[in-house]
Design brief:
about 400 residues, mainly beta, Jelly Rolls, 6-stranded antiparallel sheet, 31 strands, about 45% strand
Length: about 400
């Protein structure tokens, strides 16, 4: 036996063996106190020389290596040890103030379509890209949305009608301008624009203690986005100013010297072993922003089978042949709402908010293809989503959506 490095050894053994007796082989076994064994065996036909596996010992627990305690996972109650709270993964059950996160804060998977912020220097309004500055100063001295000092911009009116603008060359389209704004000093009127001349009063939407997101939507070419302060000395902090195609502002896309595109979010599962096209129930919860026109909660396969919104208060189940459309549901822009569909021998049913289901004939296959798409091209919050391998009764469909 020779030590290679401290704690690691090469072990060699020469042995003489014959084939007499009841057995025709023998084994050399090394066992430690933790019952791990390493062995070699050979037929007894003379002298054999062999090398056993290299043996080593390492103290990984700050205990005597002869006693290594059983591993105990931190933050997980029982085996199997995976999921939130596994050792080595940081997660939080409280907010930045140490307060417990309520279920109303756990709003699910945020799914967004692809979007491009065409404004440059979205956090630094002192940059030359904000080319029109009249009666106003802009300094990147404010603490931003991320809580980091000097990442957002303070705008100060040096006279009445203080204006800052950034013009953009773009073809005509439905566009949304947005920004996070917080009042620093003063009480005068604050306005926002995306055409450089039509001003929207946002005074009532902002305050001096928290960031408020303001947005305006219109169809136009060559937008010019900016702010106007009506009173000398008034100051506002501004962060993450955005101009993007569409009818609703998406999550912040930070820019500097060039426009930035954020790819669409994608969450899919395979249909194999996850859904039975012949019988089942599909449940989900969804909330979408105001003016979000497309609401696909779940799409199953290559067609349009799944749960989809025909309006903010009308939802439907489709099996690609027939549609079960439930009307009179709650508006999904004000809170997360529960929606469910079922299919099978009892037909194709759709409901939500605890209403009696609407049922139509079922064509025999709820979807096709290999993919379950959560959210499809929706902008909004989705989850939880559940798929059951049986068709719920009408009473059960009402109960789960209350």
């Amino acid at each position: 036996m020779s030590e290679v490095v401290p704690g690691t050894y090469d072990i060699r053994l020469n042995a003489l063996a014959d084939a007499t007796g009841a057995g025709d082989y023998f084994a050399v076994i090394f066992a430690n106190s933790l019952t791990h064994t390493r062995y070699q065996a050979f037929v007894g036909d003379g002298i054999k020389s062999f090398e056993l596996l290299r043996a080593w010992s390492v103290d990984v627990t700050n205990y005597d290596a002869s006693y290594v305690p059983e591993y105990v996972s931190v933050g997980v109650e029982a085996s199997p040890y995976f999921g939130a709270g596994i050792d080595g993964a940081k997660y939080f059950g409280t907010d930045q103030n140490g307060l417990a996160l309520g279920r109303d804060k756990l709003i699910g998977f945020r799914r967004e379509a692809a979007a491009t912020n065409n404004l440059l220097h979205s956090r630094d309004l002192g940059n030359a890209a904000w080319s029109t500055k009249t009666n106003i100063t802009a300094a990147k001295t404010a603490t931003g949305l991320d809580g980091i000092a000097n990442t957002a911009t303070t705008l100060t009116a040096t006279a009445a009608d203080a204006i800052i603008l950034q013009p953009i060359s773009l073809a005509s389209a439905a566009r949304c301008a947005s920004a996070y704004v917080k009042r620093r000093t003063g009480t005068g009127t604050i306005s926002f624009t995306q055409d450089g001349g039509t001003w929207t009063d946002i005074t009532a939407q902002i305050n001096s203690s928290t960031w408020s997101r303001v947005q305006i939507t219109s169809t136009l070419a060559n937008p010019s986005v900016g702010f106007k302060g009506g009173t000398l000395g008034d100051e506002i902090d501004v962060d993450c100013v955005q101009n993007e195609a569409g009818a609703v502002a998406t999550s912040p896309i930070v820019t500097t010297t060039a426009a930035v595109t954020r790819n669409a979010d994608l969450l899919t599962y395979q249909t194999a072993s996850n859904i039975d096209f012949a019988v089942g129930t599909l449940y989900g919860e969804i909330q979408t922003p105001i003016n979000s026109l497309t609401r696909y909660l779940v799409i199953v396969g290559t067609g349009y089978s799944g749960i989809a919104g025909a309006s903010l208060v009308t939802w439907r189940a489709s099996d690609s042949t027939t549609i079960a459309q439930q009307v009179g549901l709650s508006d999904v822009t004000t809170a997360k709402r529960k929606r469910v569909v079922s299919w099978g021998p009892a037909g194709l049913s759709s409901t939500g908010d605890g209403l009696a289901p609407l049922t139509v004939a079922f064509d025999g296959s709820f979807g096709d293809g290999a993919t379950i798409n959560i959210g499809s091209n929706t902008n909004g919050y989705i989850g939880p989503v559940a798929i059951y391998n049986y068709q719920m009764t009408d009473a059960q469909l009402q109960e789960v959506t209350k």
